[in-house]
Amino acid sequence: MSEENSDRIVLCAASAYTKKYFLNPLFSGLPEMVQRELNITAVVFTERVGGIITFFFDTNGNLLIETGAADFDAAYDEIGADLEVKSLRNEKAELLESIETYFKVVALHQPLPGDI
Q: Within its chain, how far is the Cα of 30 from the centroid?
């Protein structure tokens, strides 16, 4: 995982090493169903692939997904993780887009798409 984290806001993360899930308290206003879906998605990902998955927003409000592994983790498959992220982005496209829109409207105070 990247060490350069100052220009991003973490939404949530999960770790196969600690068997923990984290949701940034800044996003406690997300609907419970969305929070639950993020939790399940992140935990299932780390159970399948291993390592750590982090969902975060860049300075433009884009929702990005980053995966990585500890140096000692020889079982982590970076190519497999990238394929799983692509699959996740396809399967959860509507959810991820709605979370991104939420962040842009609530945190960045951008108008809703289609508003003038």
A: 14
